[in-house]
Amino acid sequence: MNYALIFAGGVGRRMNSRAKPKQFLEIHGKPVLIHTLEHFEMHPAIDAICLVIVADWLDYTRRLTERFGITKLRWIVPGGASAMDSQRIGLETIREAQGGSPDDIVLIHDGVRPIISAQLISDCIESVKRYGSAITIAPATETILRTEMDGKLRSIPREECLLARAPQAFFLNDILNAHRRAQEEKRDGFIDSVTLMLHYGHKLHTVEGPAENLKVTTPADFFICRALLDARDNSQLYGL
After folding, report:
1. What is the tally of structural domains in the chain?
2. Position 222 in a domain
3. 15-28, pLDDT tens digit by residue?
4. pLDDT tens, 44-71?
5. Strand arrangement of the beta sheet that strand 206-208 belongs to
6. Between β-strands 133-139 and 105-110, what pairing exists: parallel, antiparallel or unpaired?
7. Cβ neighbours around 44 below 10 Å, total
8. What is the average pLDDT across 89-116?
9. Which 3 state secondary structure label does DSSP give 148?
10. What is the distance between the alpha carbons of residues 236 and 240, in angstroms, rounded to a whole number?
11. pTM, 2 dp
12. Are 231 and 237 in contact (CB under 8 A)?
């Protein structure tokens, strides 16, 4: 079985939206979250979706997903104190309900990362089958600087740098066991699944995704995302 774990447990403080969390802001008449869910809903290889959401918005989310026909959504659960807590809660939910076959694959994705493709989802699934993991990446396109211990700046050749994005996919048992181990060891400093799995010695395989695969975090991100979707709809940049 192939599962999509979508986490949207944040409240979007950097978005400065007082009315709704960022995942519910609308572009083209649909919330950002629905744009994201539809990619997994329509992909033939995805069997079920688990959505981790802000606790106060559970009922609203249920009504919203019913309205837009997200039929593969099997679980909607409240998020935890952090993004990694939310991931673990979602993974535990899937495992408890399904039993956890060694062949089960989970694609972990941000609810506010709505511009991906069916090809990327397929590539991630195939990468896990072949290599045990799939980390969506994009090449760095700007100068990368690092602050040394003495306070001086050093440039890092950007051709040596990759940006980790999502989906990040694994065998369900592998990623859940890493989360459980981190919880037992009281380690809560991991940023995402990449840092978690690298810490516990997993070798990770990368899959290159579309350059426009941005995470909607700030107002600028929102407007860029809307412009990209406008361009797709108008066939000005895509499909030519």
Report:
1. 1
2. yes
3. 454 567 888 998 88
4. 999 999 999 988 899 999 999 999 999 9
5. 73-78, 48-53, 2-8, 105-110, 162-171, 133-139, 206-208
6. unpaired
7. 9
8. 92
9. coil
10. 8
11. 0.90
12. yes
